[in-house]
From TrEMBL, chain B:
Domain called DUF403: residue spans: 1-308
A Pfam family per the record: Alpha-E
Highest taxon in the source lineage: Bacteria
PANTHER family on file: BLR5612 PROTEIN, SLL1039 PROTEIN
Native source organism of the sequence: Mucilaginibacter xinganensis
InterPro entries: ATP-dep_Glu-Cys_Ligase-2, DUF403
Transmembrane segments annotated in the record for this chain: none
Annotated protein name in UniProt: DUF403 domain-containing protein
């Protein structure tokens, strides 16, 4: 196959799994059509596409605001125009793995808030659970509709140097980014006319419909038109764009805490014609801010009394409260065991080997090999508070060790995974950058559904392994082929 | 509809209407300043739209470019186009899922257009009319899009109430200020270009020419701006529309709130409807306009108390 300039010059990083090039630097089959298309475009064409993408994001207000010296500066979440492509087989494998994992995690949540067999049987140590700040006693013995706790999850998946898929973390609280999955696709349709159908890319547009169907099914009142709302912390939240997008796509009301009031253990929203009862809440407010009477008393984001209404079963809350105990990084270590324990199956998707630093032996091992390790806080997120051993200075390592020794349970160590790379269009040429994948799984009364796609995040800085948007990461459209 | 959402609709719309009035006012006054041999005063415009203290007004008064900067892109002027469009957009952002996507994009582009540093630069260095026209076009795009895409429901009613309330207040303020200057300086009474510019800034010049044959008369201008129901910026036209859109909010579950506001709007409507130029002049124009303004504010406050209070 004749390849034009961009691909001749593309050189994958050695020792890294490249999504486009195989080990013998042959293009993988599923990238051929895209390469053909892009090779036919001049650098000028591609620059124009990049410009168009930026303009579309900006004019549609798909931005987040960075506050700088009292002035809001709107930025778009950096978007790379070259799609990331996943084959049907790869996807089928990931999909099965996620369904298995979520099923087990959900059974774990039910167990941990009811009989606690897994603790009694000694599979998961009791102190790991009770020391987790997201284990909420308020949820103990509480019945949730259909026994579903995690209705929406965004499990982060990475590939190692040999292409093996690993689960990096299970995001089971209020995972964000799904609107970027949807918007990236809309933008790509504009950038590459006709290319999606030619390549046989599966659609992701069903996501809001499935989510809405699941929310509807949770209504405690058996009425034809239950009130479903999306509870947002408000316009200053970094994911606010996503909240409005989802509310718009589902046609549900977007509310803030101040729009709701609880009366006689029922939740109402304040309307111009009086109070209207709310049946289902898709909340994007974290547990601790949800009810000032039960959790953080200073929170202005939640609704006083909502926990009481939830306990009475008068309102459904999605995701359930207290799911954080299952995505604590110290509990993550036990997920493969959970799969074996609850499902009697071998895990399909692997965990990244993880050392719990509360355990002295493992801690010693991690400290001795610290240059090859990533150390994370068990309840951190957004890439904050991490130590990347290979990139840290002696002094940073020593300071971090002292921090760990204050409360070792709050840290885990993982060997540095060499994330796979994919071609990105940068400064007029294609360059490999590290990526991960966050597919979004929806768990409803009919089972788990995952739209074929997800958010591919990109570490835009050369050599960087950190893809979080808060750390300078970007994203790509994710194509799953039929 | 959520009370907060209703309030946002109302405010986003008031701010847009205000920006429209300001831009037209600035455009005509700028044109007028190019036509004046003696020093042109911006003081009335600053008083109407920026509500500044005398000191600030004096500082800016005769410096056309400084006034334009202050009124359009001034960050420290809470009522600059930049700041009110930012507020309008913040309100829209909070109710985005209630607004057609087209309309949101319109408003968003208006915002990005005002924010573009090129606008400020062009206002200082190039032809300000060209710049103001770019912005006026943004408002018109917004109004066209709203007309075509907005669902004919509660949200649109609150938007239109906001729009016409703001418009009525503007027309009252402009009349009051302009006629106030006349009583300070009676020479203006016979100054043709003074009245012409007043009408132009309200977009009522051509209608005036067609309606009144005997040249510029203060009493005719008064009649058109207060009482002419064919003039889209007249006080009566605006108040009739407030009444019309408010009527659509009638609902069994808010009968008491509705009745109270309906009474206030009806009273104001009658006050204007049963006025004549002669009766206004007898009452004293300034007293008359002050009373109308007070009632318009009263309607705004009542909306807040009865419809938006829960927000």
């Amino acid at each position: 196959m004749q390849e034009s300039g961009y691909f001749d010059k593309y050189s994958p990083i050695s020792g890294v799994w490249d999504e486009m090039y195989g080990a013998d630097t042959n293009v993988r089959d599923h990238y051929r059509k895209v390469i053909e298309y892009i090779s036919g475009e001049s650098a000028d064409d591609l620059n124009k596409k990049e410009e168009l993408a930026k303009r579309l994001f900006m004019s549609q207000g798909i931005t987040f605001t960075v506050y700088n010296s009292g002035e809001g500066i709107e930025k778009i979440f950096p978007f790379d125009i070259i799609p990331r492509i996943i084959t049907a087989d790869e996807w089928a494998f990931v999909e099965r793995g996620i369904k298995q994992r979520l099923t087990a995690l959900n059974l774990f949540l039910k167990d941990v808030y009811h009989n606690q067999f897994i603790i009694k049987d000694g599979i998961v140590p009791i102190d790991i659970i009770y020391s987790c700040p997201h284990f909420l006693r308020e949820m103990y013995q509480l019945q949730v509709p259909y026994d579903i706790y995690v209705h929406i999850s965004g499990i982060d998946i990475i590939r190692d140097y040999d292409g093996t898929f690993y689960v990096l973390e299970d995001n089971l609280r209020t995972p964000s980014g799904v609107s970027y999955m949807l918007e990236n696709r809309e933008i790509t349709k504009r950038l590459f006319p006709d290319l999606l159908p030619q390549c046989g890319v599966r659609s992701v547009t069903e996501y809001p419909t499935i989510l809405y169907k699941n929310l509807l099914a949770l209504s405690p009142r058996q009425i034809s038109n239950p009130t479903i709302v999306l509870l947002s912390p408000g316009i200053y939240n970094s994911a606010y764009f996503e909240h409005t997008t989802l509310a718009r796509l589902m046609g549900v009301e977007l509310v803030e805490g101040r729009d709701l009031v609880v009366n006689n253990h029922k939740v109402y929203m304040k309307t111009t014609t009086g109070l209207q009862q709310v049946d289902v809440i898709y909340r994007r407010v974290d547990d601790e801010y949800l009810d000032p009477l039960v959790f953080n008393p200073g929170s202005m984001l939640g609704v006083a009394g909502i926990m009481g209404a939830y306990r009475k079963g008068n309102v459904a809350i999605v995701n359930a409260i207290g799911t954080g105990v299952a995505d604590d990084k110290a509990v993550y270590v036990y997920v493969p065991e959970m799969i074996r324990y609850y499902l009697n199956e071998e895990p399909i998707l692997k965990n990244v080997p993880t050392h719990q630093l509360g355990n002295a032996d493992e801690r010693d091992h991690v400290f001795q090999n610290i240059n090859k390790m990533v150390i994370k806080k068990t309840n951190g997120s957004g890439g904050y508070g991490m130590l990347m051993g290979h990139a840290a200075t002696e002094q940073e390592i020593e300071e971090y060790k002292l921090e760990i020794m204050k409360d070792p349970r709050n840290f885990i160590g993982q060997p540095t995974i060499s994330l796979s790379s994919a071609p990105c269009y940068m400064q007029g040429e294609l360059q490999p950058r590290r990526i991960d994948l966050r597919p979004y799984a929806l768990y409803g009364p009919d089972g788990i559904e995952i739209v074929p796609g997800g958010l591919t995040r990109v570490a835009l800085k050369e050599g960087s392994l950190v893809v979080n948007s808060s750390q300078g990461g970007g994203s790509k459209d994710t194509w799953v082929l039929a | 509809m959520l009370s907060r959402v209703a309030a946002s609709f109302y405010w986003l719309s008031r701010y847009i209407e205000r920006s429209d009035g300001m831009l037209r006012m600035l455009k005509i006054n700028y044109a007028s300043s190019q036509d004046t041999i003696q020093e042109f005063t911006w003081a009335p415009v600053i008083r109407i739209f920026a509500g500044q203290g005398e000191e600030e007004t004096e500082r800016l008064d005769n410096n056309t470019r400084a006034v334009l900067k202050y009124m359009v892109t001034g960050k420290d002027n809470p009522n600059s186009i930049l700041n009110i469009i930012t507020l309008s957009r913040e309100n829209a952002r909070g109710v985005q899922e209630h607004i057609p996507k087209d309309l949101w994009q319109c408003l968003n582009e208006y915002y990005h257009t005002v924010k573009d540093p090129k606008i400020e630069k062009a206002l200082q260095r190039e032809d300000p009319i060209g710049v103001l026209d770019i912005l006026i076009k943004q408002v018109m795009l917004y109004y066209g899009t709203a007309e075509i895409t907005m669902e004919r429901g509660e949200g649109r009613s609150f938007m239109n109430i906001g729009k016409y309330l703001e418009r009525a207040i503007q027309s009252v303020d402009i009349l009051d200020t302009k006629f106030g200057s006349v009583s300070d300086n009676p020479d203006l009474l016979t100054d043709t270009s003074y009245w012409k510019h007043l009408l132009l800034s309200l977009g009522g010049y051509e209608l005036y020419l067609k309606t009144y044959r005997e040249g510029f008369e203060a009493s005719n201008i008064l009649e058109q701006v207060v009482l002419n129901n064919d003039f889209p910026r007249s006080v009566i036209y605006s108040v009739n529309n407030i009444q019309r859109y408010f009527d659509r909010l009638k609902n069994n579950s808010n009968a008491d709130d509705f009745r109270e506001l309906s009474f206030q709007i009806g009273r104001l409507q009658s006050r204007i409807k049963y006025s004549s130029v002669r009766s206004i002049e007898q009452d004293g124009l300034h007293q008359y306009l002050t009373q109308i303004r007070k009632e318009l504010y009263g309607i705004g406050n009542a909306l807040n108390a009865h419809y938006f209070a829960n927000s």
